[in-house]
């Protein structure tokens, strides 16, 4: 009798958890032609990245290629994008099993190792987790664990408990600049807690995300790019942009970073507040009248010259990858919408409009991203992270076929 009386409430609780997404693990049906396109993209990516490896001298890190000048541009290991090259090689290796890609990745990782002690940047998540985090899944090694833990320790030194955030860009000591991109560095911290059992990394990530919801987001779930806090009191001094069109605009890549970041927050904590945040951001993006029908965003959702504004393939790749995870956590109807949009992005990035011919484009897979429009740098060029998240999105899509 007692047992029976418990059945209804337990059933109701389970149903409500399922509909709220806590236990949801949706599955959607990938299209055969898209899976075939993805298979070809991985094979072509293999050719491209071996071509790219010949474009620069040993010890450097790919940054971009300027088609107008036929010029390949590199950086040193401290540039925020230094982890994407090895990360892309490793992801392509997972798909093609071409040992040449693994050899090149392992060689490049050697030059990146020293960044584990870099306390001068907040970008260690991008730099070290996309590279060594991926390497640790491909070929797990104790030395990778150590590098990842040291990287998380270095990143944690930039956390200010009064502000409740990790400092992004260095600035005058009284200022404390935090950019929305910083949400992407939190996955490294969650990983460090798993590797060490030390919850302090996890707590920093949660505090940073909560402060970001409070101060970076507008009521419509669009995000500011930069918040300047008072480093002593934590008060918000300014809300502005650096890479977007205007302080009040929605810079496209920043919106994608935020979406991806809050999907990770939900995955790692299972706190519904982060799921709601990710769904709110997805709604802002997918219902935006300035999102084109092909779902490849303009570089800023409020750029003045829409429909002639430049597109940003990187914002599209990041959004597709995030949506292909988020669709698993929500109800079937929203999930199907997210899946369909990601599928449309993958299809369109795979057309000659965005996907480079073999042995061109400096070896990058995708063309047409926008790095920093206001600064006049990396405009309408390939970018390492556009490729990285495109490959990841295709892996996530393919996973639905299993
Ligand atoms: N600041 C990183 C980016 O350009 O997305």
UniProtKB/TrEMBL annotation:
<dbReference type="GO" id="GO:0000272">
    <property type="term" value="P:polysaccharide catabolic process"/>
</dbReference>
<feature type="binding site">
    <location>
        <position position="257"/>
    </location>
    <ligand>
        <name>substrate</name>
    </ligand>
</feature>
<dbReference type="GO" id="GO:0052757">
    <property type="term" value="F:chondroitin hydrolase activity"/>
</dbReference>
<feature type="binding site">
    <location>
        <position position="241"/>
    </location>
    <ligand>
        <name>substrate</name>
    </ligand>
</feature>
<keyword id="KW-0732">Signal</keyword>
<feature type="active site" description="Proton donor">
    <location>
        <position position="181"/>
    </location>
</feature>
<dbReference type="InterPro" id="IPR010905">
    <property type="entry name" value="Glyco_hydro_88"/>
</dbReference>
<feature type="signal peptide">
    <location>
        <begin position="1"/>
        <end position="24"/>
    </location>
</feature>
<dbReference type="InterPro" id="IPR012341">
    <property type="entry name" value="6hp_glycosidase-like_sf"/>
</dbReference>
<feature type="active site" description="Nucleophile">
    <location>
        <position position="123"/>
    </location>
</feature>
<feature type="binding site">
    <location>
        <position position="253"/>
    </location>
    <ligand>
        <name>substrate</name>
    </ligand>
</feature>
<dbReference type="InterPro" id="IPR008928">
    <property type="entry name" value="6-hairpin_glycosidase_sf"/>
</dbReference>
<dbReference type="InterPro" id="IPR052369">
    <property type="entry name" value="UG_Glycosaminoglycan_Hydrolase"/>
</dbReference>
<feature type="binding site">
    <location>
        <position position="123"/>
    </location>
    <ligand>
        <name>substrate</name>
    </ligand>
</feature>
<dbReference type="Pfam" id="PF07470">
    <property type="entry name" value="Glyco_hydro_88"/>
</dbReference>
<protein>
    <submittedName>
        <fullName>Glucuronyl hydrolase</fullName>
    </submittedName>
</protein>
<keyword id="KW-0378">Hydrolase</keyword>
<feature type="binding site">
    <location>
        <position position="181"/>
    </location>
    <ligand>
        <name>substrate</name>
    </ligand>
</feature>
<comment type="similarity">
    <text>Belongs to the glycosyl hydrolase 88 family.</text>
</comment>
């Amino acid at each position: 009798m007692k047992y029976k009386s418990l059945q209804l409430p337990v059933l109701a609780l389970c149903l409500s958890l399922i509909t709220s997404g806590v236990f949801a693990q949706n599955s959607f049906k990938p299209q055969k032609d898209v899976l075939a396109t993805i298979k070809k993209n991985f094979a072509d990516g293999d050719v491209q990245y071996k071509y790219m490896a010949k474009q620069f001298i040993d010890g450097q890190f790919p940054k971009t290629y300027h088609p107008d000048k036929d010029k390949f541009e590199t950086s040193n290991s401290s540039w925020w994008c230094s982890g994407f090259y090895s990360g892309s090689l490793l992801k392509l290796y997972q798909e093609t099993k071409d040992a040449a890609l693994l050899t090149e990745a392992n060689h490049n990782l050697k030059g990146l190792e020293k960044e584990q002690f870099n306390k001068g940047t907040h970008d260690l998540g991008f730099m070290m987790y996309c590279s060594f985090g991926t390497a640790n899944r491909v070929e797990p090694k104790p030395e990778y664990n150590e590098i990842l833990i040291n990287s998380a320790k270095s990143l944690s030194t930039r956390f200010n408990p009064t502000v409740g955030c990790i400092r992004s860009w260095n600035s005058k000591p009284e200022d404390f600049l935090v950019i929305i991109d910083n949400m992407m560095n939190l996955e490294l911290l969650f990983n460090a807690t798993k590797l060490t059992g030390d919850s302090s990394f996890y707590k920093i990530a949660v505090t940073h995300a909560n402060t970001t919801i409070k101060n970076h987001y507008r009521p419509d779930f669009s995000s500011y790019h930069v918040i300047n806090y008072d480093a002593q009191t934590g008060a918000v001094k300014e809300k502005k942009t650096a890479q977007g069109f205007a302080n009040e605009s929605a810079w496209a890549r920043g919106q994608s970073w935020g979406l991806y970041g809050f999907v990770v927050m939900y995955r790692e904590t299972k706190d519904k507040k982060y799921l709601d945040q990710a769904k709110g951001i997805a709604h802002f993006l997918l219902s935006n009248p300035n999102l084109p029908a092909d779902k490849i965003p303009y570089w800023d959702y409020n750029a003045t010259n829409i429909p002639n504004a430049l597109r940003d393939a990187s914002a599209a790749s990041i959004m597709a990858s995030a949506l292909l995870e988020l669709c698993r956590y929500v109800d079937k109807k929203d999930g199907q919408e997210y899946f369909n949009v990601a599928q449309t992005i993958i299809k369109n990035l795979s057309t000659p409009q965005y996907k480079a011919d073999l042995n061109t484009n400096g070896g990058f897979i995708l063309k047409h991203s926008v790095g920093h429009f206001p600064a006049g740098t990396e405009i309408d060029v390939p970018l390492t992270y556009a490729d990285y998240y495109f490959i990841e999105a295709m892996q996530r899509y393919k996973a639905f076929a299993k």
